[in-house]
Structures are given as C-alpha cells and as structure tokens.
Amino acid sequence: MTTGSGTTSSSGAGAGTVRPAVVLLGLLALAVNLRAALAGYPPLLETVREDLGTSSGVAGFVQASAVLMMAVGSFAGSALGARFGRERALGVSVVILALGSVVRGVPALASLIVGSLLVGLGIGLAGVLLAGVVKEHLAERAGAVTGGYVVSMAIGATVASAVAVPLAAALGGWSFSLAVWAVPAALAVVIWVPVARRVGAPDRTAVRHPLPWRHGFARIAACYQAGTSLLFYGWITWLPPYYESHGWSPQRAGLLLAVWSVAQIPAALIAPTLAERHRRWRFWAGLTLGCVAVGTLGVMLFPMPGTAVPWMWAVLLGIGVGAGFPLGLTVIAWRTPDGAANAATSGLALGVGYISAGLGPLLMGVLIDLTKGFPAAIAVLLAAAALQAWAIWRIGDRPVA
C-alpha cells in the first residue's frame, strides 16, 4: 500500500491508483445511508403498530430483524470482500440496502419485515467492508477517518429521524416515508462506482483471514461492540416510544431522537481523534461510556417530560453512543496488520455486537408488553453498559500489536 498522492489497494491484483481524498469522499457518501433507513423507523413505530394492529413486541421485532441481519452481513462481509474485492462488494451492499428500502414501501407487515431484513443485510456487509477499506487506503488516519464516516452515519440518522413523520404526512403514509431512503443510497452507489472500478479485481493470492473466534483481543472487542451496539439500537428503537408514553407527540419524540443523533456528531469525530493522538483509548472510551450511563439512568429515574431535562439526557446519550462505535473500530484498526485482518476482526466484533443489538430491542419490547412499562426494558441497557465497561478495562491502552 502506498500513501501520499495515491493509494494502491492490496485487495486488487494490478489495481489502479485511487487518491485517498476520492476514497474518503466515496466512503462518506456511502456512510450517510448506514443508519438512515433504521433511524427513520422508530418515530413511525407507534403509527405502524396502530395501522397494522401489532403489539409492541412485533413492532420491536421489525427493528430487531434488521439488526440481526446486520450480524449475518458482518460475519459474511470479510469472506465476500476477499472473494470479490472489498471495494466492489461495498457498492453491492449499499445496492441491497436500497432494494430493502424500496420493499418497505409496500404498507404490509410481511413487506416491512422482508425489506428490513434486506436493509440490515446491506448495512452489516457495508460496515465490515468499509472498515477494511479504511485500513487499506487510509490507515495512517484511521481514527479520524473512522470518526468522519460515523459522523456521516449520524447525519443520515439525524435527518431521517427528524423528517420521518413530516415525510409520512407529505407522501401519504409511513411506508412511503421508509421507501424514500432508497434515493440517497442509489446516489451514493453512483459516486462509489468509479472507485470500485479503478481499484480492480481482488488478489486471489492474498492471505485470507477467517473470523478470529479464538483470539483473545477479538473476543473482548466483540464484548465491547455488544455493549455499545445494544445501547445504540436500544435507544434508537425505544427512545421515541418512551416519551410518547409520557404524552409527547410522535413528531416531538422524533425531534428528540434527532437531537440524540446530532449529539453523536462531535463525539464521533473528536473522541477517536484524541484517543489516537494521545494513545489513551481507555480514558476516552470510559469517559464517553460514563455519559451514556448517566443519560440512561436519567431517562429511567427522572424522565421529567414537561421540562427541558429530556433534551439533556438525549445529549448525554448521544455523546456516549456516538463515540462508542468509532472508538471500537479505531482500536481494532490499531491492532490489526492489514485490511484483511481488520475486516475479519471487525466482522467478528460487529457480528456479535449486532446479535446483541438485535435481541436487545426485541427483549425490550417483550418486557414493555409484560410489565406495562419501560423500567425493566431500560435495565437491559444498563446491563449493556456494564458489559462495555468490563471490555474497556480489559482492552486498556496496550500498544498496537
């Protein structure tokens, strides 16, 4: 791999040279789509539940099914990238995401679930492949670049959660509001195609890295991702319904989720960069986890819906989950020798994380139905924070392997 004026991908035999700035632009365009389709559903969850006549558990299963398919995509992403080339496979994964959004445009429970499965598969594949592309082309600034594309993801999520309800009203239904996210996904693929073509075919002689189930660091990284992913997807699914249960309108609850997403943007950009600069990963990971833990306790114990306090809790939650995900990918980038190893380790960590995140919102929905309230469901998120804290302590600030 070369750096400076250009980057040559080791994933391609005789691959062409692609400028790092061009790769970065393409990655940011793709990343905008990796949370938008998911973030557009929670503000509409209660509307969908009432329209289709489903329970909270079934409504939560829709989001859970998408996240569980993200786990499938994460486990498969490394092998797919090795077989076809990470850059090409990354473009295909976003095409799958776009197709899922189109399928969700049919206002029926079956199409909503099938479309969500496709959306989740596309996101899961893209997450692993994107991490490998960063290691391959932009390794010298892995922390800053990872923070940058997570910021793009947060921007997509912010816009999606803020406009979901108005779009449903303007377009004539919740299904159209979900389907509209196929458009930015298709545009991102158009931007990425020249990069994928320039890189060339995958190198069939390159060393393949299976998922490192027996590697101690990989297992701890997986525990870390399990905690941070469950916190993210638990709150993205149930924060709006929680405050709707306190009398808020769906639109106001959607704006609260937008504030939560906006708070992620500086955290996702600043925390990994500072951790990379000073090599104090444990400090920044612990500090940002403290924010999400305080916010979670605050929402559960002091919701105070008639005051400005919920917005403060949303900011703290956003800081914590916004920094948590890129910090996890950053420490993996530091401790893997090449793009293939990074993709394999990221695939394991993200796959385990998404299994936890997929089951978490589903379990929360069941607990809400059984207990007729939210405290037991929020306790699941506190358990996730405890698991993440343990992983942070174990990972520490050891030097790059």
UniProtKB/TrEMBL annotation:
PANTHER family per UniProt: 2-NITROIMIDAZOLE TRANSPORTER (PTHR23523:SF2), PTHR23523
Chain ranges passing through the membrane: 21-41, 61-82, 89-106, 112-134, 146-168, 174-195, 216-238, 253-271, 283-305, 311-334, 346-368, 374-393
Pfam families (UniProt xref): MFS_1
UniProt keyword 4Fe-4S, yes or no: no
Gene3D superfamilies: MFS general substrate transporter like domains
Protein species of origin: Pseudonocardia alaniniphila
PROSITE patterns, sorted: MFS
Membrane topology: Multi-pass membrane protein
Location within or outside the cell: Cell membrane
Domain Major facilitator superfamily (MFS) profile, chain residue ranges per copy: 21-400
Protein name, entry field: MFS transporter
Keyword terms: Membrane, Transmembrane, Transmembrane helix
